[in-house]
Design goal:
single chain; alpha+beta; Jelly Rolls; 5-stranded antiparallel β-sheet; 14% strand
C-alpha cells in the first residue's frame, strides 16, 4: 500500500490537465456556495477548461462525472479553511487524492481477495492488480473518475461477498448504497449494479430488495440534486447517447488485442484466467455466481467501450477505458485462485501468474508512469487526429523510446502529403512534421500568474504551437511542381513571447537571423519572412530548423517549459 502511494507521488507521467481538470474546481464551487457552477471563475480559467465544461440554463458546469467532486467536497472545504485554493494548486491536490485512492484500492483488493484465499495469495493478487494494470498507469497520473470509482466498486463487492457468505441483509443494504455512489462517480459502473441485481435474483432473492431500495434512494437523491443545481435530472455524461456507436468490430478487437490499447497486450497477467477455470468444479454455487459476475462485468464493459466512437480513450496509456471493470476481474480471479499448491496445475498457475504479473508491472508501472516517450506516443502525432497509431505493431505504446519515436516520425513524414505554393498551413497540419514544439496550450497574453504557471504547455490549443526549448524543427515535403527554379519565400506567422532572437536554417544552411519585436512578458504577433535562394529547396523532404537562444522558462512543480515563439501557420509564396 505504501509503495503504491510512493509510486503515485513520484510518477513523472502526469495527466492532471486531462479530463480530470475541473473536478476540484466543481468541488470548490459547491463548497463556496456556487452549487457546482463555474461562471464565477476568471475567463482565463474557463478558457483553459474548454471542452471540459457544458452549459445548462445559461450557466457553466463541469462536463465529466461530478461524483468525485461531491465525494471530495469535505476535503476541499478543509483545504479552503487552510487557505489552499484549487486554481493554483489543482495539480498537487489531484496527485495527493490519487495517492489516497491508490492506497484504498490496494487495501480493498487485499480484503476482497482475503475472503477466498490465504494472506500471501491475497497480497500477491492485490499487488499484481495495482502495479500491473491501469490502476497504476492511469489511476496514478491524475484524479480520474476511475480512481474513486474503483474504490467504491471494490468496497461494494467486498460487502456483497460478506452478505452472500453470511446471508446478512445489513451488508447487502450498504452494498446497495455504495454501488449507487459508484454509479454517480463513474456512470459506466451501472454495469456493476446490473450484475449484482442478476446475481441476487438467482442466488439470494431475499437480499434483492435490501440492495435495490437503498440504491434507488441514493440515485433518486442524486437526480433531485442534479435538477436543483443544474436544471436537468441527469447531467449529459450520464445519458446513454454517449454510446452512439462507431466502428464497433474494430473497437472490439482494438480494446483487446491492439498494440496501442489492447487489454491482453498491456495486461498479460489476465491470461492466467485460462488455467483458473480448472478450479471451477470445486467452488460453491455462490462462488461460481461471483466468478461469473466478475468476468461477465468485464465482458459487458468491453462491449460498452466498443460502442463508444472514441473507444481508444483519447490521450492516455493503454486500455484506460477498461479500468472500470478491473475490480470484477480481481473478484473472478480471487474466487478461482488455487487454494492449495498440491496439484501440478495449481503450481503452474501460480508460477505463470507471477511471471505474467512481472511483465504487466513493467508495462504499467515502469513504462506507463516513468517513461516520457509513452506520453509522446499519443501526443506526436495526436492519437485523436491519427487513431491509426493504435494498430502500429512496429511501435507499440509500451515499447516507446527516443529511437522508436524518431523512426515513427520519419515513417509518417514519408507518408505526408506535399506542401503546395500559395497555401497557408496551420500548425499541426498533416503536411507539417513538427518536432520540438508543444502540442500546445498557452493562452493569449501569457504572463506569470498563478494559474498559467500550473498549465502544461502540451494541452491542445487551436491555431498555434509553442517552441519547447531552444531548438524546434519543421519537416515538410515538396513535389517537383512546387520546387521553385527561381527561389521564393517562406513566411512564418508566429506569436513571440517578448522579444526573441532567432536563427533559421533550411536544409542545413542558415537563411535568416533576427529579433522579433515584443513587450517583455507578453505575447506579440509577428511575421517572419524568409527568402529562399534557388536550389535551397528540393523535391521530397525538407527541414526547417528554428534556433531561439532566449527561450523563457515558465512553469511550476514538474511542469516547466521553455517557450519563445508560437507557430500559427507556414506559407510558401
Amino acid at each position: 500500500m505504501l509503495v503504491a502511494v510512493a509510486v503515485t507521488l513520484t510518477a513523472t507521467n502526469r495527466m492532471t490537465d486531462s479530463d480530470a481538470m475541473g473536478t476540484l474546481l466543481a468541488s470548490e464551487s459547491l463548497v463556496q456556495g456556487h452549487w457546482l457552477a463555474l461562471d464565477h471563475y476568471p475567463d482565463l480559467v474557463k478558457s483553459v477548461l474548454g471542452a471540459r465544461v457544458e452549459t445548462n440554463d445559461g450557466r457553466l458546469y463541469y462536463f465529466f462525472p461530478i461524483g468525485t467532486s461531491l465525494l471530495i467536497a469535505p476535503v476541499v472545504a478543509v483545504l479552503g479553511l487552510l487557505g489552499i485554493e484549487m486554481v493554483p494548486n489543482d495539480d498537487k491536490v489531484q496527485v495527493a487524492l490519487a495517492a489516497v485512492a491508490a492506497a484504498a484500492i490496494v487495501l480493498l483488493s487485499y480484503a476482497l481477495a482475503r475472503r477466498f484465499v490465504g494472506a500471501w495469495s491475497a497480497l500477491l493478487l492485490a499487488a499484481a492488480f495495482w502495479f500491473g494494470t491501469s490502476f497504476a498507469s492511469t489511476g496514478a497520473t491524475a484524479l480520474w473518475s476511475h480512481d474513486f470509482g474503483a474504490v467504491l466498486s471494490l468496497a461494494t463487492l467486498l460487502l456483497l461477498v460478506k452478505a452472500l457468505q453470511s446471508r446478512a441483509r445489513s451488508w447487502v443494504l450498504w452494498s446497495g448504497v455504495l454501488a449507487a455512489v459508484a454509479w454517480i462517480i463513474r456512470p459506466q459502473l451501472l454495469i456493476l449494479t446490473l450484475g449484482i441485481v442478476l446475481l441476487l435474483a438467482l442466488r439470494w432473492r431475499r437480499g434483492l430488495p435490501a440492495f435495490i431500495v437503498p440504491w434507488a434512494a441514493v440515485a433518486a437523491s442524486f437526480a433531485v440534486f442534479s435538477k436543483a443545481t443544474m436544471g436537468t435530472w441527469l447531467p449529459a455524461y450520464y445519458l446513454p447517447q454517449r454510446l452512439e456507436g462507431g466502428a464497433f468490430w474494430e473497437a472490439l478487437a482494438g480494446t483487446m488485442i491492439s498494440p496501442g490499447r489492447g487489454m491482453l497486450v498491456f495486461t498479460p497477467l489476465l491470461l492466467i484466467g485460462l488455467l483458473l477455470w480448472a478450479n471451477w468444479p470445486s467452488r460453491t454455487w455462490d462462488e461460481r455466481g461471483l466468478a461469473l459476475r466478475g468476468f461477465g462485468w468485464f465482458a459487458l464493459q468491453w462491449v460498452a467501450v466498443a460502442r463508444f466512437p472514441h473507444w481508444w480513450g483519447g490521450w492516455g496509456y493503454g486500455p484506460r477505458l477498461l479500468m472500470d471493470a478491473l475490480p470484477g476481474l480481481l473478484l473472478g480471479t480471487a474466487v478461482l485462485w488455487p487454494r492449495t499448491l498440491r496439484t501440478a496445475v495449481a503450481k503452474v498457475t501460480v508460477a505463470g501468474f507471477i511471471l505474467l504479473a512481472a511483465g504487466s508491472v513493467w508495462i504499467h508501472t515502469v513504462q506507463g508512469l516513468y517513461n516520457p516517450y509513452t506520453r509522446l506516443w499519443y501526443i506526436q502525432p495526436s492519437i485523436d487526429e491519427s487513431p491509426d497509431i493504435v494498430w502500429d505493431w512496429t511501435y507499440p505504446q509500451f515499447m516507446a523510446s527516443e529511437a522508436g519515436h524518431e523512426a515513427r516520425s520519419a515513417r509518417r513524414l514519408a507518408e505526408m502529403p506535399p506542401m503546395q505554393r500559395g497555401v497557408a498551413y496551420p500548425a499541426g497540419a498533416q503536411e507539417l512534421g513538427m518536432s520540438g514544439w508543444s502540442t500546445g496550450f498557452w493562452s493569449p497574453g501569457v504572463s506569470l500568474d498563478g494559474f498559467r504557471l500550473g498549465t502544461p504547455s502540451w494541452w491542445s490549443e487551436d491555431g498555434r504551437r509553442w517552441t519547447e526549448g531552444t531548438r524546434a524543427r519543421i519537416d515538410f515535403t515538396l513535389d517537383s511542381s512546387s520546387v521553385p527554379s527561381a527561389g521564393g519565400r517562406l513566411v512564418l506567422s508566429v506569436d513571440s513571447f517578448g522579444p526573441q532572437r532567432y536563427a533559421i536554417l533550411l536544409n542545413g544552411a542558415q537563411i535568416a537571423a533576427g529579433v522579433t519585436e515584443g513587450v517583455e512578458g507578453d505575447v506579440t504577433p509577428a511575421r517572419i519572412s524568409l527568402p529562399v535562394a534557388p536550389g535551397t529547396l528540393r523535391e521530397g523532404r525538407n527541414e526547417l530548423v528554428l534556433l531561439v537562444p532566449d527561450a523563457v522558462t515558465m512553469g511550476k512543480v514538474t511542469e516547466f517549459r521553455q517557450i519563445a515563439l508560437a507557430l500559427k501557420d507556414v506559407e510558401f509564396e
